[in-house]
What does this fold into?
Amino acid sequence: MPEISLLIDGTQRSFPAGTTGTDVFGQDRAIVAVRVDGQLRDLVAELPNGGEVEGVRIDSPDGLNILRHSAAHVLAQAVQQVNPDARLGIGPPITDGFYYDFDVAEPFTPDQLKALEKAMQRIVKEGQTFRRRVVSDEEARAELAAEPYKLELIGLKGSGGDAAEAAEGASVEVGAGELTIYDNVRRSGEVAWKDLCRGPHLPSTRLIGNGFSLMRSAAAYWRGSEKNPQLQRIYGTAWPTKEELVAYKDRLAEAERRDHRKLGAELDLFSFPEEIGSGLPVFHPKGAMIRMEMEDYSRRRHVQAGYSFVTTPHITKSKLFETSKHLEWYAEGMYPPMHVDEVREGEEIIKPGQDYYLKPMNCPMHNLVYSSRGRSYRELPLRLFEFGHVYRYEKSGVVHGLTRARGFTQDDAHIYCSHEQMRDELGSLLTFVLDLLKDYGLDDFYLELSTRDPEKSVGDEATWEEATRTLAEVATASGLDLVPDPGGAAFYGPKISVQAKDAIGRTWQLSTIQLDFFEPELFDLEYTAADGSRQRPVMIHRALFGSIERFFGVLLEHYAGAFPPWLAPVQVQAVPVAEVFEDYLGDVVARLRAAGVRAELDTSDDRFNKKIRTATKQKVPFVLIAGGEDAEAGAVSFRYRDGSQRNGVPVQEAISLITDAITTRVQV
It folds into this structure.
């Protein structure tokens, strides 16, 4: 029998011709597909001679996508079993799950989702196999004649269009290469169901197991356009085991409990008045106090690090953003212009008006600060910093509380340095960023390197390569994991993003550091070098929090509203056991305030126990209680957020304990 040679996990081995992934990895049930020369294939696919082959485990990122896409097929099969008139949209895997779109007469109800889940369980237990077939356009059209949305995708592909780009998630069905259909086949050989799909899939529906669940349904426009029909989307999740599914649902419940929008209302921190507009937050006194502490500490650290503070307007003439190329590359994210300064005499325009834009970025204005006078190499690196309010026209479906707003404050820095200073400046900047984030209670990081999108960028390839290489070397030197983000860079340069994990393991993109050789050229920025020549500075864009609002939302969810003492809007709540002890505790509160502590005395008519519950609900770090024994001893009793208590603490000691906890930024 002829033999083939395969490179399996780095070892060259011989196998009979016709060997499949099942033959090689069949003993390991955790292997659900293979990667052949970098391409994912079904486990039953015949392996080519000379191929480099590795097994894909179900718990790997690719394996989870395959599991979830297979579950999406089973969902679609179940929907058409229950409702044969349902027409199919698309069903890709997504983060932590999958969805499938359907054209049905009525939206799905919660009871219908439960029934569909049971139908899916029956299909899973049947152990149907996923079998791939290559088909021509004509064959696919004939087999899927009753599926108008599939026919549309086939037509886009056949006409040379990019169907994968034309519809969100369509890359799982069509794309480069041949057209394929997957059959779901029963043990008898009967085809139970079929779908247009690129694959790969699990070998059997049994491998979906009992780690899946349908989560919710929602309306979604076909191909993401309101001009198209509105379909009904079912969202689901799938995990290798039931235990992982339960853990995921627990994480969702915890995330819902920590939702910053919910906590913001409960703790009276901020709101989004309809009268002002979507994505434009208003901070209430307690929220503004937290924000002030965040900003003040950041200001002090920036002063220590040698930054110079600047302030720039909220609006500018259009010419500034023409120079910076934002109107060319970023206009969709900007609010429409305001046309003003036009002078008329009757119907005649004496002086034409100008367009003014709300600024989406601070960098063009910082460039004007730099160019306001001549600069010497002795001034470099020049570090300009601003809490600058910017405005970006996010689509209404994208706006999400504080974490995706339309008006927000960037803690924005722009560093101008020489080419020789660039690497050291980037290294110290990354260290500064990580250290400051740790002071706010985040310490689990990895880095992401966003590289050039050739279709959405300015400048030459050589400059981009140098900038990207430099950022990669600095990121690697930090010792943190570095993950690629191909094509994710801004139009003017590559960037490093700091990805931080919160208390429940979710990842948030926070700080960004972008290297820019092109804005200095666009603004003709120069400095006088030591030899008297005129040189172009390198520009580094840096946002530490991303925005104050977004970072506020992240911290609110990270701490579940229980901010550490230094950030808490009310640091001490004093609760007298009875009204007679109000004066005694009032004196303690006055001493605390004199020491710079945000302390309040509860003099409401509520009963003592209700006052304690109110302080607990408001997540106050320290509750001070005083009754007769405390007053006689010149002491107070501590009640902490975890419910523990410490009695009989002398007042001066109590003040010292509280002020020490605040100044050392303890995470309690």
User: Anything to note?
Assistant: The chain has four domains: 3-57, 62-254, 282-442+517-531+545-558, 572-663. The CA atoms of residues 78 and 119 lie 6 Å apart. The chain has a mean pLDDT of 91. The two ends are 70 Å apart (CA to CA).
